[in-house]
Amino acid sequence: MNARGSTSRDAIVRAALAGARDRGWEEISMQEVRLRAGVSNGSLFHHFPTRQDLESAVVAAGLVEHDGALLVELRMSTGAREGVRGVVVRHLAWVRENPRVAVLLLSARPPALRAAVPPEVVEDSRRFFAEVAAWLRRHGWSGQPALPVVNALWLGPANDVARGWLTAGGEEPAGAVAAVVADAAWHALRAHLRVDA
Question: Are 28 and 20 in contact (CB under 8 A)?
């Protein structure tokens, strides 16, 4: 693909992500995305033949942004407990800061998402999980349970809290709620990690 095609695709994704953040994915039209991106109909539909294709790209872009925020938290942590808790608190803060995008991420259909994710996003995801695994190993993780299980123990309860807040009007995951969920994640993972001295 030439540089101009890549630039058009990126502009469309940025415009769609901004629209999703501002008004919610369900509220923006393909025409609005096209106008925000400043591209032609031909360019929009060349890159994204269907709304589902564009939605998958928006979810992928949101994931890259979210994962970057979590990596910053991990890199700043000085111990296992601080890192585990910090990632949960940062995850819930990101949800509060980006509720309309978080709804998309937490409701994404994995098979459809995987089919539409560009190779560079797949590579970003691979690097994200490799860095998380390396951090876990530095803190005593043996590789068992497997990383998907560790991830479920770590962020699964936080995702449930976030979904409840976003879709069912549950309690906002701020302050004391985030601390409780972060403590629960630490209790779930501490047996698999080296406890801070």
Answer: yes
